[in-house]
Amino acid sequence: MEGTTAQVQHYRLYINGEWIETEESIPVTHKYTGKVIATIAKAGKQHVEDAVTHALQTFRTSTLTPSERSDILLVASQIAEKRREELELSLVWEVGKTRKDARGELDRVINTLRLSSEEVKRLSGEMVPLAATPGSENRLGFAIRVPKGVIGAITPFNYPLLLSTHKVAPALAGGNTVVLKPATSTPISAFLLVEILEQAGLPKGHVNIVTGSGSQVGDWMLDDPRIAMYTFTGSAEVGTYIKQRSGLRPVSLELGNNSPNIVHEDADLELAARQIAQRSFHNAGQACIAVQRIFVAEAIREAFTQKFLEEVRALRVGDPEDAETDVGPMISEAEAIRAESWVKEAVEQGAELLHGGVREGSLVYPTVLTRTRPEMKVNCLEVFAPVVTIIPYQTIEESFAAANDSSYGLQAGIFTNDLNLAMRAAKVLEYGGVIINDVSTYRNDVMPYGGIKNSGLGKEGPHYAIEEMTDLKMVVMNLKP
Hints:
Helix 2 packs across helix 6 (188-199) and helix 9 (269-280) packs across helix 10. Residues 1-5 have low confidence and may be disordered. This protein has helices spanning 45-61, 66-82, 84-95, 99-120, 160-173, 188-199, 214-223, 236-245, 269-280, 301-313, 333-348, 377-380, 396-404, 419-428, 462-468; strands spanning 9-11, 13-15, 18-20, 25-29, 36-41, 126-128, 139-147, 150-154, 177-181, 207-209, 227-233, 251-254, 260-263, 293-297, 352-355, 359-360, 363-364, 367-370, 387-393, 411-415, 433-436, 456-457, 470-478. It contains 15 helices and 23 strands. The protein is 38% helix and 22% strand. The chain starts with 8 loop residues before the first strand and ends with a strand. By secondary structure, the protein is of the alpha/beta class.
């Protein structure tokens, strides 16, 4: 891909190292201009079965050693760095990311590949003290980690390259093979990732790509008992469906959130206003851990709101290819219309619009609401758009209770200079991650990332994902006395 005016490229299915054509294709559009930039093959049921067949055969016959897997992932990180411009532009065009956001995503992709490479060398089991039990004095016990088999990976539109990497790289590091289904609206990054892995020396069959709608291709994957585990990032509704359909097979689900961020009266207001404003609207608010509900102590509400709005007004909205743009388009005009309708509904129900509320096609300008109520959609559901609410509170207990009053539990943020309060928040807030003096949006790829309640099951981050994607096998040796 050399530009938005380049010839439309066609991506076929990738099965067993071969590019497979199908009868039907699906267009992929530039999310800012609306122009078709690529087409992808639409998989049929037989294609999915073939992908799983080859993935399973490769798993059973693969001779890749741990050191070879580590080397391939390390070389892939180096290739990704060399192809940075191409990969960043792909994200700008197919997702609508700003250059700033695309650069950040690629930094994390490179890091995740490197971390996965390193984790291969640390994959180990443990000794089990069987001899300490009377009657087992001659037993030697140890547990080893073994790969599960074929991993079915389903990824979302918002971080297509990073989240594909977070599933594929740990799966390969653990010795598994993969059938990957990327989001239909942003599939190009997945094909580029496979190209990079192939260029790095990954033999055919280890990663296979099938494209098409989740309701068809995803269901065909769920129906195939040869897939040993499913890893999915997306909505709570689809995650619940996958868990129900997967039976006894394990799942790793990274789902939604309506992230609370608390600004206490002792907080550094300059830091809080700047961090929350800069990170509330990145990727057009389309992130599972994007700031959504901002709880502010009543004593500092006016001062914080003023500083926060000053930062928000300085954000530039528009063409994501412009290096100065801070907020680009949403994934589609339909999603932008949906977000706009939620804002209008809140205002009609009594909310006050402090900033934004403007939509131009798929662009939604950073929107700040106050005087909202907990039952409004902009508070109780995942807005997944550049929309935040400012909610005052009287006591810290009130803020904790309000933050926890959610069916979600992925990540939360709190700004305070009180160490005791910070540690209390870490214990009281019902979230998989609590970020102190930074926003809920913070994620480092080494950390165990995942939520509780309707925000999912399992943890991502190469070390933790590899544990999810491998089994602990017990070995007992009965030695002669």
